Amino acid sequence: MSNYQQLSAAMFPNVTATPEQLEERYPARDLKEGARVTRIAPSPTGYLHLGVFFTAMINRLTASSTDGLFYFRLEDTDKKREVEGGADDILSGFNTYGLTLDEGFVAPGVVKGDYGPYQQSARVDIYHVYVKSLVEQGLAYPCFCSEEERLAAREQQEAQKCRTGYYGPFAKCRALSVDEALARIQNGDPYVVRLRSPGDESRRIAFDDLIKGKIEMPENDEDIVLLKSDGVPTYHFAHAVDDHLMRTTHVIRGDEWISSVPKHLQLFRVLGFKAPKYAHVSPIMKEENGGKRKLSKRKDPEAAMHFYAQQGYPADSVLEYLLTIANSDFEDWRRANPDAPRSKFPFNLKKMSVSGALFDMNKLNDVSKNVIASMDAQTVTDAILAWAQEYDAAFYEKLNADRAFATGIFAIDRGGPKPRKDMAKWSDAPDYAAYFFDDGFDASWELPETIAPADAAAVLNAYKAVYDPAADKQVWFDTLKALCPALGFCPEVKEYKKHPEDFKGHVGDVSTIVRLAVTGRRNTPDLCAIMQLLGAQRVMSRIDAAIEKLS
Ligand code: GLU
Predict the structure, then answer these.
(1) Bridge pairing between strands 285-288 and 358-359
(2) Ligand 1 in contact with 239 (CB < 6 A)?
């Protein structure tokens, strides 16, 4: 046995498997040429952040557009940061938005695939096989430095104006002889395992980032920790082993990891693995005081995916909107292909923003209005009921008391060639639908200044006499027109504009008066349809109340 073999055997007495056996256990994937294998690898640190969702979506699109595969791996080696149920929240968020996973954790508590376990805490044995092999080759070593020693070294580095870290001459335990290391291990001294970095700070490495282009950085020369003193791996080490064994072809992740790429490439090389391709996604930005800043978990409610569920944005709206910020040509594509499924969009990593896409709530609302406008009444009603059941119990009860009436509300002006775009999210529905219910009708409306109360009362009185609850839209409007001459209003808007001084107003004003009386609003969807749904009794009682209010 060589010295290094002796050392590795003392450090890992229970490890019998070899890297070769693991290669066999996790064979190359049987996918077509060019298929990309991507992953999202969150830590279970709490709620689903928009940035993680966005990155997952980019991974999903990249895999789907190449007939590849997208999997979920849980990076749970940092128990200090772990939040109970943190992974479930992320997974159910993915599920809610129809972001499908092919492998790994695919839903809370549901795991699929042959490349598992998909949870790092269950893979410790696998990591040990590789660390053992590295020690055996002299590429890793045990480090016994205590916290105090490392702090003292750091102070020394700062005093000497040197780069801080465990590298070169400062990597004290790198110089320990195998015999010394063995003696300390046999003595039961605690230790971490470090990489014997082959890097040189004065050399540079270059790699092609699929989003950011060519990037050059100094090589890593730090002897980074591979295993902590409890035998649990660090993220850097674990992810390299996992991405290799799970046969990831493309690592697409937040750009906070760019600075770690030299470490990662070095790990892949030392381990004898082919490195994946990288694409680093810039954070989603927000405009503030004329400048741009990162969307913040603390300051911006829209940074959490829960926000969109609470507000009642349909999943489709969120996905459509995120695509507009992922690839700026998505909107052109959408205009040209209004009904095509999103999966047909030729997504391209290279077209992603390098500086960070700007999040724009108004734009999200516009996109969402279009999405909602294209839905049928039943879909909208069901979605609003589901939303209200969770977030607005009183509204839910109102709608649920008469579901046909509820569907009637949301059917108005829907389905035609020019649907109205009043609602951006389900939380707009309670206000949108308020006047359909007597307790939501707001009687504090005011006439436009151009209409005298007495004239409005006269219009309503005359209308009462001719109101036909069964009238269709054409008859309904003709009735209003027919009322005009006797009341001093002009039945034709064009005619009115030629001689406004001859009239009290035009047919549009007459309909405004009726609209205000019946709905309390100046602007509503098709008033004839509203009146039909409200029914004669309610319409008449609101008109009577209006006449009283005006006199
Ligand atoms: N666990 C890391 C994180 O939560 C993943 C980084 C990566 O995708 O490589 O950010």
Answers:
(1) parallel
(2) yes
